[in-house]
Amino acid sequence: MRISIAADHGGFALKQQIVPFLKELGHTVLDRGTNSESSVDYPDYAIFVVRDIVSGEAERGIVMCGTGLGISMAANRHKGVRAALVQSGEYAKLSREHNDANVLAMGGRFTSLDSAKEFITIFLETPFEGDRHVRRIKKIDTTEI
Ligand code: RB5
After folding, report:
1. Would you call 78 a catalytic residue per the annotation?
2. CA-to-CA distance for 124 and 65, rounded, in angstroms?
3. Of 37, 39, 63, 71, which is best to mutate to test ligand 1, by the most ligand atoms within 8 angstroms of its C-beta?
4. Is the pTM of this model over 0.85?
5. 27 assigned to active site
6. E strand segments, 14-87
7. Distance (Å, whole) CA 119 – CA 99
8. Between the CA of residue 19 and those of 27, 127, 142, 145, what are the distances in Å?
9. Which of 29, 65, 70, 105 qualifies as a cystine partner to 85, CB 3.0-4.6 A?
10. Tell me, what's the pLDDT at 107?
């Protein structure tokens, strides 16, 4: 799979450990930064992954900030992106089965490497269930206020 990944400074350390893990699994990784612990703004990095997903450059995305909250909010502002902030294997599984999540969000300051590996493996391997969920995820992009 082609996987786009980005983090702010709060997710940087975890990203650095995840990139080699993804490569070991045989995936092509588009590492969109950040590339140091220096403070940056998470929306500036979410947008790199959003562009890769919306353009079809990547099939899946992974985003991280300190909590995963800000960067998932930023990613979810864009049509066609379904970013799931995951803190358990069950959430990773359901985000795929029910929501067809195409972006996995994690909190770099709250997620161990072992947990991140577990969430990523489930996120990449679990298929979307389709059926009634197709109607629901369509409404995410089509419902207007
Ligand atoms: C940066 O300190 C922190 O606010 C950011 O990484 C993230 O947790 C925001 O949601």
Report:
1. no
2. 20
3. 71
4. yes
5. no
6. 28-31, 60-65, 83-85
7. 15
8. 10, 22, 34, 39
9. 105
10. 98
Q: Output the pLDDT for position 79.
A: 96
| Residue range 85-130, pLDDT digits in tens | 999 999 999 999 999 999 999 999 999 999 999 999 999 999 999 9
Measured by CA distance, the residue closest to atom 5 of ligand 1 is 66
Q: How far apart (Å, rounded) are the C-alpha atoms in residues 8 and 34? A: 6
What tokens were used for 51? 């562009």
Please give the domain boundaries of the chain with CATH numbers for all domains: 2-142 (3.40.1400.10)
pLDDT tens-digit readout, 43-66:
999 999 999 999 999 999 999 999
**Nearest atom of ligand 1 to the alpha carbon of 11:** 6
Distance, C-alpha 127 to centroid of its chain: 16
Q: Ligand 1 centre from 102 Cα, in Å?
A: 22
For 108, phi and psi rounded to 5 degrees?
A: -65, -25
Using an 8 Å Cβ cutoff, are 45 and 32 in contact? yes
